[in-house]
Design goal:
Layout (H helix, E strand, L loop, with lengths): L3 E13 L2 E13 L3 E5 L5 H8 L3 E6 L5 H4 L2 H8 L3 E3 L4 H7 L7 E2 L5 E4 L2 E7 L8 E5 L4 E5 L2 E2 L2 E2 L9 H12 L7 E4 L5 E2 H4 L3 H7 L2
Parallel strand pairs: 3-4, 4-5, 5-6, 10-13
Antiparallel strand pairs: 1-2, 2-3, 7-8, 8-9, 9-10, 11-12, 13-14
Length: about 210
């Protein structure tokens, strides 16, 4: 079977610190014709299920605990029987959205999630949130960056549990060390590459949060 990546766009509300924002999210599916990993089950479980089709869902991986990245995770888990995985440092964010249903398992830096004969390696990249992670798929030269790195710079750090120096350290030490041709599939918006973003690190530092 051929390993492939599929994007599903979903729309909904991001809520934090008493403010609401309408957002469009990228949900990423990684796998083949038999099995798939879902990255960030956002807003619309039915849309994700349609994309999954008849495949077995190996895991529902949350890049972080903000509601717009996890609000369809429980419904998707109930429909597929797949476990939901989240870094434990974001449990307080998860509990706001799903107070009666904990994640099924925790993510750890360096662990490998296997799917379709390939491996997604977990990179702990705090800053946007304490438990933010990215997922490196070396076989296809891709990293799924959640809200850590976007086209044009770091993810937002102006709200609770976020920190600008921390996200810069994560990007500098965990992402910009990847090969420059690595494709960056983001949690919102368009994809970019490590080589495109790396030259702008000093600009981001001068710009500040």
């Amino acid at each position: 079977m051929v390993l492939s990546i599929q994007r599903v766009r979903t729309s909904g509300t991001f809520s934090l610190d008493g403010a609401d924002f309408e957002v469009e999210n990228n949900v990423w599916l990684v796998g083949d014709d038999e099995e798939v990993v879902v990255i960030d089950a956002a807003h619309d479980a039915e849309a994700v299920l349609d994309a999954v089709a008849r495949r077995r869902v190996v895991s529902i991986v949350c890049t972080h605990g903000h509601n717009d990245h996890i609000n369809a995770a429980v419904d998707l888990a109930d429909a597929t029987g797949a476990p939901v995985a989240l870094h434990p440092d974001d449990r307080m964010l998860w509990d706001v959205v799903h107070p009666a249903r904990p994640p099924d398992r925790t993510l750890a830096d360096g662990e490998v999630i296997e799917v379709a004969g390939s491996a997604l390696r977990v990179l702990h990249t705090p800053g946007h949130s304490p438990g933010g992670v990215c997922l490196h798929l070396a076989d296809l030269a891709v990293v799924f960056s959640g809200d850590t790195l976007f086209e044009g710079g770091p993810g937002a750090t102006g709200r609770s549990f976020s920190d600008f120096p921390t996200i810069l350290d994560s990007i500098r030490n965990r992402l910009l060390t990847l090969p420059p041709e690595t494709l960056v599939h983001t949690g919102h918006g368009d994809s970019t590459t490590i080589g495109t973003e790396a030259p702008h690190l000093d600009d981001w530092i001068r710009r500040g949060s």
